[in-house]
């Protein structure tokens, strides 16, 4: 607070010493230097040639350090005082740059702030603008750690603009962010000393308001549109440019600027529309841009944006002859690859001899990394050796490895990076380092299948390359290959599974001479530890056919069972089989339907699932099929039990296993019931508080989205932000109006939910579904409490009491004190009815003896704090006033 006060004192002193400074525009930007050190630049635009020119400006860094005076650095030193005097940029305007550096103590958010005594004179939307302080601020966030540093946006278009009366006006600050952060734009009120909003400030379209006078800014592109100015003069706007990183606000810059509306007949030029695009790094983006003018003026094209400021291979734009199309050329580089696109802006300006108007266009360019080349997969017993060429982009941080069973023939779309989930590929690993282009996949590589891979290059900011081509290989069948895990009987204790596997048909028996044996392991569910359940007798002969085992006394009703078969040569384990589980079916009830879903973990590909249902006859019938792992059985009767199982059909791609693999889930039963809540009602408020005819009204969902709504719950809170409580239940679907007399204490916030019919769920419990809440509506109070200005307590029953006028409302209590003309209190009360009859609040004893003291006629004063009932709670309002009291023959003592 002391620092801000010092600012104001210095500013006011400058007013008296120097006169008006006539600020027209300004902003504060910053650039990261190193560590916690930043270069900070204040830009101002002032009227050229005024006496009150600033060689320095005071700057608050926002970290509690002392305010510093920052020297101007641009322009010639006309005054020969060792400080440059700014640059004349035309239109009676001087551009001033004040630059300094500052080292912050550590991470945090800091508000950079400066102010100056006076704005330009005669600004239409700022009352008495020449006497109104000028202030600008920006927010800097130092993130710390590994979160990177932050630079403010670069504002490429100067803060000046001329507009024509009753003509469309366009402006864009053409901001780009060197860190690739997302930018958002908004128009905000202008500020004065201590960063306070200027009293009486209005937006330009609030001067001569109307349908033909609107001003707005595009939140994403920053284009300001004023359609159209209705009064000649100078106007002020403030554009706030906010920076977001990963959805979090990390900074802003406020540009305060003027728009000068003149009497002219010029129209803005027209510029071609541009579509967003992407381009692969190390290729060239080349395109032509054209603009025209409806008045036949020649048009100058300019290009702006981060691509033109890059240190490595910046973009180039050239317009050889005014009026001809301009040429954009950008030889992109791997250094340009990033997650966020680059925005390129074009500005088209006509050469009208009175006011030159501009138009703007922009488009986004996404630079993506090319795919890695020459990927290969080489099988090696029970793992795969992967290899690929290093990415052409040496700034890559690593590679993502994706795998699936069987080829899908995937080819990326134009501009598509990474591997979409729809391909069925799953990421199995991430290797770090640009030159780390080899990988051993020993992560349970499935035997008996073509195993396919794709490689994606990744970068530090999360961006990814185009996926490599698909490449595949298969492991030789040198291990047991499970083909069946099928539930034969469903029970919590006495369930039964059938397990089948093929022996290692491609095992080199000249090396592995036997004897051969197997160990079978089982796990509960999909992830529990494996338990040895059988060891086979060693045999000198390697069986070449299917091996089958049946295991009983299992829980097949409440869980899946997962198996692994380990193979031994002369008592030494060679390689285990892949893991394979039974199908575990889950049935979830809903309204007139049952939702079936199932889980399974197998090394082959299941291409078909068939669903069978038993309606109580004991016979299962096929009701449908799918390639997904879910199925909806619809059109059922609530409360009737249905039982199901699923049959899967799968295949290996290995020719040595040419047959289909048929497996069954457990049986699962359920009853459908209504578990779906109705849609919420749509609520609205009718009536007015002052007329005391408030009513709540809502829609009946049975008329548009439901068929079984039977009741409503009405919820209420008297104060905004507090927890809602159930106010009442209305047991009629058609009763959708509550009148004020039904609500009791009417003021507060309400929402309504719909309830459907009472039903018995699958647990045998009677339940009722409740919808999501409707929108919340609030009934605001309209407090009324008025006191009289005269009373006459003389016993004639007219104006006998000092009391509020009848019909006061929404008053919880008062705190009233009445004073005589000497400031002495004569009466106090907290009763809103008051009913003061002129007697002193304290009984007195005097020379007439004990009695009540009636105060004399005359004028009395009061202070009354009225505690009003509002949506925000009890809010005090202070009434101050006076009233006259007179009697006819009333004695002072009785």
List keywords for this structure.
disordered C terminus; flat; 5-stranded antiparallel β-sheet; single chain; 894 residues; mainly beta; disordered N terminus; Immunoglobulin-like; 65 strands; 6-stranded mixed β-sheet
Layout of helices and strands:
Elements: H1 2-18, E1 23-34, E2 37-47, E3 56-59, E4 68-71, E5 87-88, E6 93-103, E7 108-116, E8 134-142, E9 154-155, E10 161-164, E11 169-172, E12 175-176, E13 182-188, E14 214-217, E15 223-227, E16 233-245, E17 248-262, E18 270-271, E19 277-280, E20 284-289, E21 291-292, E22 299-304, E23 316-318, E24 326-331, E25 342-350, E26 358-368, E27 376-380, E28 383-387, E29 398-405, E30 426-432, E31 438-441, E32 451-458, E33 471-473, E34 481-489, E35 495-502, E36 516-524, E37 531-535, E38 547-554, E39 561-569, E40 572-576, E41 580-581, E42 584-590, E43 593-599, E44 605-614, E45 621-626, E46 630-634, E47 642-651, E48 661-664, E49 668-670, E50 683-686, E51 695-698, E52 709-717, E53 725-730, E54 737-739, H2 740-743, E55 748-756, E56 759-760, E57 766-767, E58 777-779, E59 790-791, E60 811-819, E61 825-829, E62 844-846, E63 849-851, E64 858-870, E65 873-885
Parallel strand pairs: 10-17, 19-26, 59-65
Antiparallel strand pairs: 1-2, 2-6, 3-4, 5-6, 7-8, 8-17, 9-12, 11-15, 13-16, 14-15, 16-17, 18-21, 20-24, 22-25, 23-24, 25-26, 27-28, 28-31, 29-30, 29-32, 32-33, 34-35, 35-38, 36-37, 36-39, 39-40, 39-41, 42-43, 43-46, 44-45, 44-47, 47-48, 47-49, 50-51, 51-54, 52-53, 52-55, 55-58, 56-57, 60-61, ...
């Amino acid at each position: 607070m002391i620092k801000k006060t010092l600012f104001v004192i210095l500013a006011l002193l400058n007013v008296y010493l120097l006169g008006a400074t006539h600020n027209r525009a300004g902003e504060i930007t910053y650039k990261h230097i190193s560590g916690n050190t930043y270069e900070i630049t204040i830009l101002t635009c002032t009227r050229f040639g005024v006496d009150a020119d600033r060689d320095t400006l005071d700057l608050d860094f926002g970290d509690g350090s002392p305010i510093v005076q920052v020297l101007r650095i641009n322009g010639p030193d006309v005054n020969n005082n060792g400080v440059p005097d700014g640059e004349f940029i035309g239109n009676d305007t001087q551009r001033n740059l004040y630059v300094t550096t500052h080292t912050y103590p550590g991470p945090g958010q800091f508000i950079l702030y400066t102010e100056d005594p006076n704005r330009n004179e005669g600004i239409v939307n700022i009352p008495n603008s020449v006497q109104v302080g000028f202030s600008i601020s920006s927010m800097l966030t130092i993130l710390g750690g590994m979160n990177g540093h932050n630079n403010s946006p670069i504002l490429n278009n100067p803060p000046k603009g001329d507009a024509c009366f009753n003509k469309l006006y366009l402006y864009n600050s053409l901001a780009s962010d060197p860190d690739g952060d997302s930018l958002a734009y908004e128009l905000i009120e202008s500020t004065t000393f201590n960063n306070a909003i200027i009293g009486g400030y209005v937006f330009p379209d609030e001067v001569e308001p109307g349908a033909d006078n609107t001003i707005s800014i595009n939140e994403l592109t920053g284009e300001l549109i004023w359609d159209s100015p209705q009064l000649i003069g100078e106007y002020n706007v403030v554009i706030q440019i906010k920076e977001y990183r990963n959805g979090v606000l990390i900074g802003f810059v406020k540009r305060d600027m003027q728009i000068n509306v003149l009497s002219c007949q010029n129209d803005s030029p027209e510029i071609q529309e541009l579509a967003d695009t992407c381009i692969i790094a190390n290729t060239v983006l080349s395109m032509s841009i054209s603009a025209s003018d409806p008045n036949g003026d020649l048009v100058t094209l300019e290009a702006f944006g981060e691509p033109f400021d890059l240190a490595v291979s910046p973009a180039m734009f050239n317009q050889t002859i005014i009026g001809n199309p301009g040429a954009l050329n950008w030889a992109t580089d791997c250094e340009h690859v990033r997650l966020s696109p680059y925005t390129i802006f074009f500005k088209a300006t006509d050469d009208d001899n009175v006011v030159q108007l501009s138009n703007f266009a922009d488009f986004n360019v996404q630079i993506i990394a090319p795919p890695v080349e020459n990927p290969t997969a080489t099988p090696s017993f029970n793992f795969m050796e992967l290899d690929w060429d290093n990415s052409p982009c040496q700034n890559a941080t690593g590679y993502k490895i994706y795998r699936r069973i069987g080829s899908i023939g995937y080819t990326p779309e134009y501009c598509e990076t990474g591997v979409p989930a729809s391909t069925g590929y799953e990421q199995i690993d991430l290797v770090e380092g640009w030159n780390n282009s080899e990988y051993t996949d020993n992560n349970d590589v499935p035997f008996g299948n073509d195993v396919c891979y794709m490689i994606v290059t990744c970068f530090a900011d999360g961006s990814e390359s185009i996926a490599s081509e698909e490449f595949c290989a298969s492991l030789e069948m040198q291990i047991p290959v499970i083909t069946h895990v099928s539930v034969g009987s469903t029970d919590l204790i006495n369930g039964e599974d059938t397990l089948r596997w093929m022996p290692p048909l491609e095992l080199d028996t000249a090396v592995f001479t036997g004897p051969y044996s197997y160990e079978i392991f089982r796990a509960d569910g999909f992830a529990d530890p494996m338990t040895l359940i059988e060891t086979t007798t060693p045999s000198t002969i390697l069986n070449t056919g299917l091996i089958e085992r049946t295991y009983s006394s299992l829980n097949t009703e409440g869980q899946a069972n997962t198996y692994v078969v380990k193979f031994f040569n002369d008592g030494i384990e060679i390689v285990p089989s892949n893991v394979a589980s039974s199908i575990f079916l889950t049935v979830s009830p809903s309204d007139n339907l049952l939702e079936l879903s199932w889980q399974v973990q197998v090394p082959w590909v299941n291409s078909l699932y068939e669903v069978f249902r038993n309606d109580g006859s004991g016979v299962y019938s096929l009701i449908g099929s799918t390639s997904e792992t879910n199925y909806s059985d619809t059109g059922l009767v609530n409360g009737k039990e249905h039982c199901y199982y699923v049959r899967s059909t799968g295949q290996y791609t290995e020719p040595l296993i040419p047959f289909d693999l048929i497996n069954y889930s457990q049986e699962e039963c359920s009853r459908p019931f209504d578990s779906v809540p109705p849609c919420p009602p749509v609520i609205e408020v009718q009536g007015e508080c002052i007329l005391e005819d408030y009513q709540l009204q809502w829609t009946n969902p049975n008329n548009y989205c439901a068929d079984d709504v039977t009741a409503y719950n009405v919820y209420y809170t008297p104060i905004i932000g507090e927890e809602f409580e159930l106010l009442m239940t209305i047991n009629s679907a058609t009763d959708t109006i509550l009148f004020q007399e039904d609500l009791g204490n009417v003021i507060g916030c309400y929402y309504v939910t719909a309830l459907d019919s009472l039903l018995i769920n699958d647990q045998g419990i009677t339940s009722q579904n409740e919808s999501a809440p409707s929108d919340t509506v609030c009934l605001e109070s309209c407090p009324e409490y008025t006191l009289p200005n005269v009373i006459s307590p003389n016993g004639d029953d007219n104006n006998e009491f000092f009391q509020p006028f009848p019909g006061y409302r929404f008053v919880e209590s008062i705190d009233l004190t009445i004073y005589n003309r000497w400031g002495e209190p004569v009466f106090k009360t907290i009763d809103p009815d008051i009913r003061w009859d002129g007697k002193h609040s304290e009984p007195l004893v005097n020379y007439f003896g004990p009695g009540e003291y009636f105060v004399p006629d005359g004028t009395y004063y009061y202070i009354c704090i009225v505690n009003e009932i509002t949506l925000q709670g009890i809010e005090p309002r202070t009434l101050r006033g006076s009233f006259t009291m007179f009697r006819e023959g009333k004695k002072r003592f009785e």
